[in-house]
Specification:
This protein has about 120 residues and is mainly beta. It is built from no helices and eleven strands.
Length: about 120
């Protein structure tokens, strides 16, 4: 079992920045690709960003591209999501997830382990 714990959420004004962290334990961190998803009340959970275990390539949703950056620190077993130029529509609960897969990382069905989520609220 892989345990994931998110942190770093909070309240920020539009145009501001926030960095989310996801600490992993239970298995070798480098064996998994990591992803970030988000879900607003009444909406489906959607893909935000992912980083591949195979080559470190990163992937982003159209809304995240150019504003968000996903990275990982293997020594700390931690994945990060740096969010810049935040907008009110970014408001959601953000979830960290892990998968043994190295492809199709935007598909939430490929992820077997999920964190509890951290709330991000962007005021206008």
């Amino acid at each position: 079992q892989v345990q994931l714990v998110e942190s770093g959420g909070g309240l920020v004004q539009a145009g501001g920045s926030l960095r989310l962290s996801c600490a992993a334990s239970g298995r070798t961190f480098s064996s998994y690709s990591m992803g970030w998803f988000r879900q607003a009340p009444g909406k489906e959970r959607e893909f935000v960003a992912a980083i591949s275990k195979s080559d470190g390539n990163t992937y982003y949703s159209d809304s995240a591209k150019g504003r968000f950056t996903i990275s990982r620190d293997t020594a700390k077993n931690t994945v990060y999501l740096q969010m810049n130029d935040l907008k009110p529509e970014d408001t959601a609960v953000y979830y960290c997830a892990s998968t043994y897969a190295g492809r199709s990382l935007s598909s939430q069905g490929n992820y077997g382990y999920w964190g509890q989520g951290t709330q991000v609220t962007v005021s206008s």
